[in-house]
Design brief:
By secondary structure, the chain is α+β, with helices and mostly antiparallel strands. The protein has six helices and five strands, in the order ααααββββαβα. A three-stranded mixed sheet has the order 4-3-5, with no helix packed on it. Strands 1-2 form a two-stranded antiparallel ribbon. The chain binds zinc ion (2 copies).
């Protein structure tokens, strides 16, 4: 299996963190990068062609990807999550439909001034979460 559709920078970061490039890990990465929208862990598992019993492996990999900051975890209102590959160190905010869980990127980040305040209070390794929930046009119809 080729790694051509995976950002080489992502491979480099993973290897740098000591993560071995296993075949499952590669399939999970390829599955993630094949989505044009944030997906559930179950959807990632299915697209990676892994068995239901591999869901734990999928979650373990998603955690490893989050650790090297190439994956963003989007909380849903029901307590579950969607996952999306990001450019290394980047983050996005989304507009999420609470019915069909369609999530699209919002091209804004309103939190720079909040982070400056956190920094002024002596915090380091600051991050923030902001997702907007609603009902999309398709679901309203
Ligand atoms: Zn919807
Ligand atoms: Zn932001």
């Amino acid at each position: 299996m080729s790694v051509t559709n995976i950002d080489p920078e992502i491979i480099r970061l993973l290897k740098g963190s000591g993560a071995r490039m296993t075949q499952k890990r590669q399939r999970i990465l390829e599955a993630l990068s094949s989505f044009d929208r944030p997906a559930t862990a179950e959807e990632v598992r299915e697209r990676a062609g892994l068995a239901p019993s591999d869901l734990v492996t999928v979650y373990r990999n998603l955690e490893a990807f989050q650790k090297v900051q190439i994956l963003q975890r989007l909380p849903l209102e029901n307590g579950t999550h969607l996952f999306e590959l990001t450019a290394p160190g980047e983050h996005y905010h989304h507009l999420i439909c609470r019915h069909c869980h369609k999530a699209e990127r919002l091209d804004v980040c309103l939190s720079k001034s909040m982070e400056a305040k956190a920094k002024a209070k002596g915090f380091s390794q600051i991050s923030h979460l902001l997702e907007v929930y609603g009902v999309c046009e398709d679901c309203r119809a």
